[in-house]
Amino acid sequence: NYFREKSFADRGWILTFNDVLTLPGYTSFKPSECDLSSNLGPFHFESPIISASMDTVTEEEMAINMALFGGLGVLHRNCSYSKQLQMVKKVKRARNFIIEDVATVSPGMTIKEVRVMMKNRGISGFPVLDSKNKVIGIITQRDIPFESEYDGKVGDVMTKDPICLPANVSREEGLAKLYEIRKEKIPLVDSDGVLTGLITKKDLKPNYPYASKDTKGRLLCGLGCSPFLPKNLEELETFKKAANLADILMTDVAEFHKKDDIEGTKKLMEIIDSKFVVGNIGTYEAAEDLICNTGFPEDKFIGIKVGMGSGSICTTSIQTGVGAPTFFATAQVADAINDYAPGKISLIADGGFKFPGDLIKSFAVGADMIMSGHFFAGCTESPGILDNIQGRKVKIYRGMGSKEARAIGSYVFDRYVKDSKKLAEGVSGYTPFLGPLEGVLLSLEEGLKNGLIYAGAKGISEAYKVKIGRVSTAGINESNVHDLIR
Ligand code: XMP
After folding, report:
1. Which ipTM did the prediction report?
2. How far apart are the C-alpha atoms of 223 and 248, rounded to whole Å?
3. Is 415 known to be catalytic?
4. How far apart are CA 379 and CA 71, in angstroms?
5. Average of per-residue pLDDT values in the chain
6. pTM for the whole structure
7. Arithmetic mean of pLDDT, 438-461
8. What is the phi/psi pair of residue 310, to 5°?
9. 60 Cβ closer than 6 Å to some ligand 1 atom
10. Residue from 34, 164, 314, 379 carrying the catalytic annotation
11. Which residues form the CBS domain (predicted)?
12. Tally of CB atoms within 10 A around 419
């Protein structure tokens, strides 16, 4: 009962991050000794943070960067199986200094259009391709005439026949060439001159010592999946390729403790070689059942994802009256894991994190990793373009059960109750643009690390010892900024 008592669930309370605070503790180690690394089954991560499997959060660019910075991205599934396969391939083939998903323009585009692309994507230059995807030029801000009204064609002002490098260029060769020609970007091409990637000075410099990698040195990749195999044979083949190439499959359903979902996932585990995290669930009993009664093979079943209705875009709890806030759910499932599969099953606390300070609270009640959409939807690396509302830069963030996400059409309705096609269980809105992922991750990691240091835990592996106290409403108000004119 350790974690349930600690989270006050033994008194019948369903508490959430805001209800509690971590208490300070004695610290006998140096800040530099505090270790944020954690494990998910056989996989090791220098950062215990995962980006959610949502279509406004994790596509290949987010997944590549999450892995480069030591965490994990879980690709969403609100798309065709072939798009999923493409995304997984891009992550697994990504070389950490090469951009593979390059934004390009054609010679016939107008400068006005290019200016819009530059602004929306925050990119300062593009390779120019002909109709066969061969590189015929490059256009950067420096090529565009200063007059704001200028609206000639890309072909008129681009730098023609730019220097390109072969697709298999090494980091050292790339850096040397960039220095030699004093440029910011060089396109990479195959033997026919067709664009294969891009190197930039900015991306070549850092070496990503913390990147999450598989045994072959490729980036680790998560993939959101349905608990059911596709029925169509062609789709099944494509799904199998994507699933076997990804490292970790995560069933992506609102409430996983259902006979159909369990049986479906068992079939998946029989034919897919990758590891599985199942979820979401929110109670001790559900975890006990999944661990003890399902017969999921031990070598495939590596984790459980918990939390229901806490997500910032979720309406499941208010639409259905059922929910398990992530803090509560983590403690419940952590106790079941300790009782029945200690050290064998990892726990991901999913959703509901508002502030960096919320992270330590889930590790204190037994999480191994945390997952968030809220923190990452506003990053440069999330899918979607920048928008502007009353002068503020924003990006779209939406729940996978929102009517907007469901409207995509390819979304499999099995994330929610299978027969319910009308009831939205999520919303869509705008979230402030936050800039590059690196900065966002750094502030999360710093908040978590400082919290562990204040609480006297030398790392994630000691967080379970950290004490938790319940706070009053007055305490919550006092924790926030108060009595200040802003
Ligand atoms: P945050 O708090 O990071 O939560 O925004 C992300 C998590 O929320 C879940 N999710 C949903 N839950 N309706 C729900 O009830 C939805 O439409 C929805 N979309 C995502 C999911 O677990 C995600 O990781």
Report:
1. 0.98
2. 6
3. yes
4. 15
5. 92
6. 0.83
7. 97
8. -95, -15
9. no
10. 314
11. 98-157, 158-215
12. 6
